[in-house]
């Protein structure tokens, strides 16, 4: 069963250490991130999420962002990405 983590509302540089810790705590399990509350997605946290997606894929673990908020989707679009960029399936 996948571990579920609710993402903070503001994923800015101040939230990066907390996000990194949450990801590190979940490293040995499939992971679903709940994006419903995200109001802002900054570049540093986006890099952490993209890196985590790659790491989970390399470990043949499921990685997903469930129900990204409209604001999160807007921020992803601003970076030239779609929610699919954060989807990771086991290799």
Q: Can you tell me about this structure?
A:
The protein has 91 residues and is α/β, with parallel strands linked by helices. It contains 3 helices and 5 strands, in the order ββαββαβα. It has helices at 16-25, 43-58, 70-78, and strands spanning 3-6, 10-11, 31-34, 40-41, 63-66. The model has no long low-confidence stretch (mean pLDDT 93).
Descriptors for this entry?
three-stranded parallel sheet; single chain; 18% strand; MlaB-like_STAS; Transcription Regulator spoIIAA; STAS_dom_sf; alpha/beta; Chemotaxis protein CheX; 91 residues; 5 strands
Number of strands: 5
Count of helical stretches: 3
- For the biggest β-sheet, the strand order reads 1-3-5
Main CATH class: Alpha Beta
The CATH superfamily label reads STAS domain
Structural class: alpha/beta
Shape: globular
Summarize the structure.
38% of the residues lie in helices and 18% in strands. It has helices at residues 16-25, 43-58, 70-78, and strands spanning 3-6, 10-11, 31-34, 40-41, 63-66.
